[in-house]
């Protein structure tokens, strides 16, 4: 959409903006595009005239009467295509996916989110046969696979196919997955670790997936995910379709056993994840930590403080919302503030927690980069202070706690007050002079 705006500046900019060589990362899922223009004819015209050099193409949310002509146009004119987002293409089936893979030789990143969020059909693009063919055909060239928000069958077999054929996979998103049988699917994480050593991002957020049992020998022999930078296993404390939580301390330790490069960890809602596994995370430069609803936020010991101390030098964003242990959250927030002026902290979520005023004051005064502070529903804070602060609001809140210099503490009189005082002194001196003259005159008489 930026090219469309630039083309309206002048004729020269229009010529530059319309050059197909610049159209290499195009997002057509923007809400700025009206639905009446989201047609196969629009895609055809764009592919023929603008997208001949495109490498990243997002057509998520578009609805077509016939999918085959659209895929044919994309594969014919977009020969440099490397990433394709087909989010919400509910009519996509296994034959469509097979055609796309065969005719886009450079395709390595594929987003198939929300293809079949309600049912899993035999001919679906996400059936076991279809995904198995995808992994076998694409093999090492597949680097990104997004399967979020779908209902799938045979999830363990799908993971086995991915682990067997996709050695260069870097991003795997299994968020919001549901099984056809409404039961928890088992993920053999050690097998995935052996097959996908280059994995950087693993998301299992709010999915009916739990780690399968593994022998101690298998766990020790597993190489882990040495390149992993992001792990998200967040979910409800108790999933709506299963009776027990799916992630615990052992699961976290098995996934992160060798992840020294980890930058983001999201365990929100994991009611069986405690400080026992979190303090053992091998990464020392974590930047984003989300613990809301996690069991560790309800413990009264020093675990939360130890976690904050371990990563206080690197944390940019922290979520401690709904932490009910007052002393624990106070100590954790104080630990985050100990870095002082060098603290990288920018976002802190304390919504619904029992944090006290003193730690909040410390975090405001000692963390100069803080741009977002959520104090909504914090029952221990003064009335009127419980809300979300962003940008300049954080600066204003900080100023209310800053101590003024001693010289400024003594209220200086205004210029008007100084003038009045001066006049008063002058008037008093005049009266004294009159009295002295009067006394002298009386004595002379």
TrEMBL record:
GO process annotations (BP): SCF-dependent proteasomal ubiquitin-dependent protein catabolic process
UniProt entry keywords in alphabetical sequence: Ubl conjugation pathway
Biased composition (Basic and acidic residues): 399-415
InterPro entries the UniProt entry points to: F-box-like_dom_sf, F-box_dom, Leu-rich_rpt_Cys-con_subtyp, LRR_dom_sf
Name of this chain's protein: F-box domain-containing protein
Cited SMART domains: LRR_CC
Annotated spans, Disordered: 399-445
F-box domain segment(s): 4-28
Record bears the keyword Iron: no
GO CC, alphabetical: SCF ubiquitin ligase complex
Pfam family, one: F-box-like
């Amino acid at each position: 959409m930026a090219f469309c705006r630039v083309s309206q500046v002048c004729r020269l900019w229009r010529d530059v903006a319309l050059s197909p060589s610049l159209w290499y990362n195009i997002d057509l899922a923007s809400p700025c595009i009206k639905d009446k223009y989201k047609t196969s004819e629009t895609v055809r015209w764009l592919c023929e005239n603008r997208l001949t050099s495109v490498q990243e193409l997002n057509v998520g949310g578009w609805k077509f009467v016939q999918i085959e002509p659209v895929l044919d146009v994309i594969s014919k004119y977009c020969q440099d295509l490397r990433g394709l987002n087909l989010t919400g293409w509910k009519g996509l089936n296994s034959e469509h996916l097979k055609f796309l893979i065969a005719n886009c030789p450079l395709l390595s990143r594929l987003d198939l989110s929300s293809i079949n969020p309600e049912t899993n059909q035999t001919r679906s693009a996400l059936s076991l046969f279809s995904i198995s063919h995808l992994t076998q055909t694409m093999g090492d060239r597949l680097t990104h696979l997004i399967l979020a928000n779908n209902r799938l069958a045979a999830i363990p077999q799908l993971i086995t196919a991915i682990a067997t054929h996709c050695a260069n996979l870097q991003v795997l998103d299994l968020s919001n997955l549901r099984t056809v049988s409404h039961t928890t699917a088992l993920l053999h994480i050690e097998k995935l670790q052996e097959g996908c050593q280059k994995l950087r991002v693993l998301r299992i957020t709010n999915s009916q997936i739990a780690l399968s049992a593994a022998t101690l020998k298998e766990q020790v022999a597993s190489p882990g995910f040495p390149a992993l930078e992001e792990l998200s296993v967040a979910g409800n404390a108790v999933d709506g379709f299963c009776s027990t939580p799916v992630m615990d301390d052992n699961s976290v330790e098995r996934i992160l056993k060798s992840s020294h490069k980890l930058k983001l960890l999201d365990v929100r809602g994991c009611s069986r994840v405690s400080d026992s596994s979190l303090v053992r995370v091998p990464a020392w430069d974590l930047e984003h930590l989300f613990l809301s609803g996690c069991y560790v936020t309800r413990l009264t010991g020093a675990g939360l403080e130890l976690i904050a101390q371990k990563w206080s030098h690197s944390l940019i964003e922290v979520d401690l919302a709904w932490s009910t242990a007052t002393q624990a959250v106070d100590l954790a927030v104080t630990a985050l503030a100990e870095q002082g002026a060098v603290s990288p902290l920018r976002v802190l979520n304390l919504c619904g927690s029992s944090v006290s005023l003193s730690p909040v004051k410390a975090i405001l005064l000692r963390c100069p980069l803080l741009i977002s502070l959520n104090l909504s529903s914090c029952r221990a804070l003064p009335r009127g202070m419980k809300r979300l602060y962003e940008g300049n609001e954080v600066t204003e809140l900080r100023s209310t706690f800053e101590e003024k210099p001693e010289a400024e503490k003594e209220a200086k009189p205004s210029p008007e007050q100084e003038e009045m005082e001066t006049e008063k002194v002058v008037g008093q001196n005049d009266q004294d002079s009159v009295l002295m003259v009067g006394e002298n005159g009386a004595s002379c008489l």
